[in-house]
Amino acid sequence: MSRAKPVLAALGDSAITVTLAESPSREATAYARRFASRVRQAGISHLEEVLPAYTAVTIFYDALHLPFDDLCSRLQTLLGEEDSPSADANTPCCHRIRVVYDGPDLADVAAATGLTTDEVVQLHSSRIYDVDLLGFVPGFAYLSEIDARLELPRRAQPRQRVPAGSVAIASRLTGIYPFETPGGWHILGRTVAVMFDPRRAEPSLFHPGDTVKFERAQ
Amino acid sequence: MSITITRAPSYLTIQDFGRTQFREVGVPRCGAMDRAALGTANAVLGNEADAAGLEWALGGGTLRFDHPCVFAVGGASVDVALNSRPVDVALKSTPVDVALRSTPVDVVLKSTPVDVALKSTPVDVAINATPVEPFTTMHAKAGDVLKISGFTSGRFLYIAFGGGLDTEELLGSRSTYRPAHFGGIEGRMIRTGESVRVSAHNRGRAGFSAPDDLRPDYSRRSIRVVPGPQWSFFTAEDRALFFGQSYTVSRASDRMGYRLEGKPLSASLGLLPSEGVCEGAIQVPPDGLPIVLMADSPTVGGYPKIGVVASTDLPVLAQLSPGECFQFEECSVQDAQRRARRAAGSLHTIRSLASR
């Protein structure tokens, strides 16, 4: 990973973006996650949330009590300290998700990729995916990285309604729609797993750093 | 304690100051589009600024107080009236009957608009309606009807209640979040006929008004922006154009984001690796027309962010209707934070005056 000099930049008056790498890589994502853990553990008061992504970490804070300049100098100190490989405090989970592969786009994906539907299912369900980050809607995890043979751009015409539990692919990513929302990914199948429930102790099934394996339900 | 929506507008939800701990699993801040208005309406009631209230937009309507209640409104400029005698009650009451029979009609017509009420029976037509002033506490009796009509400027009106609304709290907030169908009432808009619980701690005095100099100022048409993380990636021409031109709020503007119309920036940056975004962030997609992210925007995004609207100015932008024009003005992060502290101080002052 090209670990360029980290850049701190204000994201408005209540957040800071710390850019740690110039281009995304598994290593960069892991480093961002470790740095996020170190920020959380540093005992800085008035932090709201620390959000790691591919190449950057965004830190939300209460600017009424913690001025930008003070937070910057705390972060600079942390950046100067040695990175500890064990800093990621979250224990990652390995999820097994049963999927009924009967999605409305399965045949089209097979046709577009020159594979049979069985081969599409086989390729999609044989890999172990990383939860890179969540977004779009609560509980929607961007999972990487699908087999290059399945790589397709998003659908030209996004659907107005994608049912909750739809398992879909786009570019080199796969994901599960937690709610009925609009969506432009190719739907391969469905799962009954509840991806997000705001009343559950752990609302989101997936967290950054987890791994996911899809299994074909018979 | 409750209120009942007797005629819902096209948009009505429950909002507070939102969720701030679950961005990592994709939950946006949510919350009031204009936190200054909700916060001030709460402060005059002596509530915490972030108590839950109603966010009302897209048309008029009515609500009924099922119990005696202290409340305050504020935000968009709207005609709000509280009647102490709804029309259907007035029609049944004997004094009006007697007056109609025993006195010449023209005298009655001059003294009360009874003829209008008789012809147009809808329940929300009020006699003896009291205008409801913004950011001023008022007392409603059980059965009173609050009528909202005629938005003259602004998009969102807030109705706050002493003690706040007492609906289910999810992920640290009562805010309605429609894209994921949770918060408020089943994560959706409130419909005609539905009741909303008000805190049992609804108390407070009527007639307290926020001092003028401490209220939100919606007259600004210059919105302060702190340059964003990708500011330096934009060309000098783009940066000059961004602050030099007048932007118009597009019709494509909602709780997720406000699209802006104007001369497009060259914006040749394309898509960057997704990273955390926030409310007020100004993304520039490849078409060069900025999108200001609002309360319900997704938590991560890959478009370059030229800047972020200062938190004190976001409510002013949120209240601009499609077609309204404004300019962006550069502001340092330190200056934006000073202003945010001053605004918080104003709310604190209003609340202490109200609680005296």
Tell me briefly what this model is:
Chain A contains four helices and 13 strands. Chain A is α+β, with helices and mostly antiparallel strands and 218 residues long. In chain A, strand 3 (47-52) and strand 4 (56-61) form a beta hairpin.
Describe the overall structure.
The complex is a heterodimer of chains A (218) and B (356). Chain A has 218 residues and is of the alpha+beta class. Helices cover 22% and strands 30% of the residues of chain A. Chain A folds into two domains: 7-80, Gyrase A, domain 2 (2-Layer Sandwich); 94-216, Cyclophilin, CATH 2.40.100. Chain B is of the alpha+beta class and 356 residues long. Chain B folds into two domains: 2-214, no CATH class; 222-348, Cyclophilin (Beta Barrel), CATH 2.40.100. In chain B, the strands form three sheets. In chain B, strands 1, 2, 3, 4, 5, 6, 7, 8 and 9 form a nine-stranded antiparallel beta sheet that branches. A seven-stranded mixed barrel of chain B has the order 10-17-14-15-12-11-18. In chain B, strands 13-16 form a two-stranded antiparallel sheet. In chain B, strand 11 (246-253) and strand 12 form a beta hairpin. In chain B, helix 1 packs parallel to helix 8 (333-354). Mean pLDDT of chain B is 88; it is low at 86-127. Chains A and B meet through strand 1, strand 2, strand 3 and strand 4 of A and strand 13, strand 16, strand 17 and helix 8 of B.
